[in-house]
Amino acid sequence: MDLDALTGCLASSACLVTQTTSGFIIGMLLFLVAVGLTLIFGVLKVVNFSHGAFYMFGAYFAMTAYQFSGSFALAMLCGAAGTAILGLIFERVFMSRVYGADVLMQLLVCYAFVLIFDDVVRMIWGPEFKSMGMPAAFQVVPLFIAGGVVPPYYLLLIGVALTAAMILGLGLARTRIGKVIRAAAHNPGMVSALGINTGLIYGGVFALGGMLAGLAGALAAPVRSLTPGMGFSVLIESFIVTVIGGMGSILGALIGALLIGMIRSFGSLGFPLFTEGLMYLFMVIVLVSRPTGLFGKEVA
Amino acid sequence: MTRTRKPGVSRRATLAMMGAGAVSFATPWVARAQAKTIKVGMPTILSGRVAQLGTSSRNGVMLEVEKVNAAGGLAGRQIEMVIRDSKGQPQEAARVARELVNTDGCEILIDAEASSGAFAVHEVARDLGVLCLHTNSETSALTADPKQHIPNAFRTARQGVHDSIVGGSYAATIAKAKGLKKWATCSPDYAYGRDTTGEYVTYLKRFAPDIEIISESWPKLFQPDYTEVVTKILQAKPQALYSCLWGGDLTSYIDQANIYALFSQMEVFAVNMADYTALTVVKNLPKGIHSGNRYIKTYPATPENAAWGDAYKAKYNEYPTNWSWENATAIMLLAEASKKANSADGKKIAEALRGLKIKSPFGADGTVTMRAEDQTLVGYAIGWGTTIPQEPYVPQVQAGDWKTIFELEAEWKKSKGYA
After folding, report:
1. Contact, A178 vs A172, CB < 8 A?
2. Contact A9/B252, CB-based, under 8 Å?
3. Confidence at residue B9, expressed as pLDDT on a 0 to 100 scale
4. At residue B31, does pLDDT exceed 70?
């Protein structure tokens, strides 16, 4: 434990700025993955254990697009669009068959696809790790805000993730499609009886979830190494986020992800040997005091 | 699932017989009679995150086996490699090793496992008494600890303590010249990371006593994001940073530290940087990272080493790794020892291996030696240098001094109660 380092940091604006942005970066990428997970659970009532694979595919799609075109924007687009299509196919062909089934059956299908997707990546891109590289536009000196270091790429990353969060939140709350999705989450039978194609909604939500994870992967690709199986560690943290925030809650995912980001960022200063443990400890505290998560609703 | 077999000769059996028939007609009788092959078993990691290293081990072995076989094999017997995947799991490595000897009839084992698996295979070798060459485990205790010693096991890999001595003395020289007093470390949180960092710091402080470690970070192995570690190090404002992160973890770390301009704010010593697997993957390799040599075809700067690296690249379309040369060395030593003993018998080869000195592209002076007392490789090329973003990646390597290594190693063994 190193509380001096923590209090010292809290007293200095430079350290505060650096560590807070660091927490934001970790948190926002986590949010993009977790929000897809929570959305799919909220509407489809399925815990998508293969969600990490979409994060992985997003990164690989982005890297390949970047290698061929040299365009960063196109890489991000390919990462997001590619995983959306993949999500749609995966939902329609496989997941839609196990909606009514036992949880264990769903888990088994998802876990099978974790392994299958990893091997597909291994076959296409090879088993060795890859790196996309930082686009030249972002290879610049970091900004110094109040003495703290803030890399411009991370500002973009935070911006994109926040925009996605806002569009998602407003879209679900204000638009007609959003209302239909919420209604389908609440009572799919009634929505279907009203003549709305629930299969389309389910496919669409899965695609959206996949797209968000893919976008996270694409945004992470320039700074993280790409390997088959890279989705797994992200998935575990995303689960912690959804458990803290409450399954099915978008605001919960955002707050949960940022909390985890901050815990990692400041925890590594104050409790360098217990950063991981701190995350789980926090989860336990939330689970004990609010078993449905911070923003989760009581399940009837 | 059950299958019903039709009576009579199956298609597969017919094909096999036809194949055997074709071979026996094509091959001269005499050649077949005398050339009883010698099977060499090799458990290694061919799947999972470090599969690339296992594959490069296999490549290193096969490159040399072809040469040995072309020159007549081990005392006239052609080598037949039997290579199996252990998936990097110690219990699987042990099981595979045992099976290779007992079921497949292998007479020699090349143990191309990481340290975790190597200790398990070592026990199998102890039990079965089969000649075993550890090719990848660099954990010092495997040969340094007398409790581990068995007459039939040898190590043809570098050794952690050698690396730490050379790395520590190199870093201390630079620390003194540039006045680097405040250091930080950042290494993966498992046995290798902890041990290697500890030994490195010990020798760094020994050569430059006024050094202070002001910050330590222990990210998890295979952690995807290092941002909090990077910013923590930036906050501590050290003058130098040591890391033994490796592979994809190291390249992630570099990409993430790069955008914080970390490399312009301190001297970085990353022992595992100068390996082609990492060097060729990082897109924006910062200039001037200090690294130990793993395998690099320009060091030792001899035509033999360059030729070996090029031959490997020509055959496998990628550069060798640290594990490639360590495995190739095993075959080179086997061939020489068998020649000296004029036998392919494991016990006789083991006898010939002790103290054997052979010419090698990877030797500091063109030779490597299998030291008799603890049956581990010495005299291999070991040094440190700084990176540049393109080939040859590490243009100047400062060689480690084997005399100093031997002195300090002996001292270290004493302090550990090994000698």
Report:
1. yes
2. no
3. 55
4. no
The rounded distance, in Å, linking the Cα atoms of B229 and A192 is: 50
Report the pLDDT value the prediction gives residue A300, as an integer from 0 to 100.
40
Q: Domain map of chain A by residue range? A: 3-126+152-289
Shortest CA distance to B193 belongs to which of B229, B232, B147?
B229
* Rounded average pLDDT over A203-226: 95
Nearest to B247 among A129, A132, A267 (CB): A129
- pLDDT, position B18: 55
CB-closest option in A132, A154, A229 to B49? A229
CATH number, span B161-298+382-416: 3.40.50.2300
Supply the ipTM of this predicted assembly: 0.86
Residue of A15, A20, A134, A149 to mutate for B, most B C-beta atoms under 10 A: A149
Residues of chain A positioned with their CB less than 8 A from the CB of B228: 19, 22-23, 26, 264-265, 267-268, 275
- Asked whether residue B224 carries a pLDDT value surpassing 60, the answer given is yes
Domain borders along chain B are: 161-298+382-416
- Report the residue of A223, A236, A262, A265 to disrupt the B interface, i.e. the one with the largest count of B CBs within 10 Å: A223
With a cut of 80, say whether residue B12 has pLDDT above it: no
Q: What is the Cα–Cα distance from A52 to A34, expressed in whole angstroms? A: 10
**How far does A265 lie from chain B, in Å, by closest CA?**
5
Interface mutation vs chain B, best among A20, A155, A268, A269, most B CBs within 10 Å: A268
- Residues on chain B touching A277 (C-beta within 8 angstroms): none
Q: Which of B222, B229, B255 sits opposite A223 (nearest CB)?
A: B255
Q: CB-CB: which of B235, B249, B261 is closest to A15?
A: B235
Output the 3-class SS for chain A.
CCHHHHHHHHHCHHHHHHHHHHHHHHHHHHHHHHHHHHHHHHHHCCCCCCHHHHHHHHHHHHHHHHHHHCCHHHHHHHHHHHHHHHHHHHHHHCHHHHCCCCHHHHHHHHHHHHHHHHHHHHHHHCCCCECCCCCHHHCCCCEEECCEEECHHHHHHHHHHHHHHHHHHHHHHHCHHHHHHHHHHHCHHHHHHCCCCHHHHHHHHHHHHHHHHHHHHHHHCCCCCECCCCHHHHHHHHHHHHHHHCCCCHHHHHHHHHHHHHHHHHHHHHCCCCHHHHHHHHHHHHHHHCCCCCCCCCCC
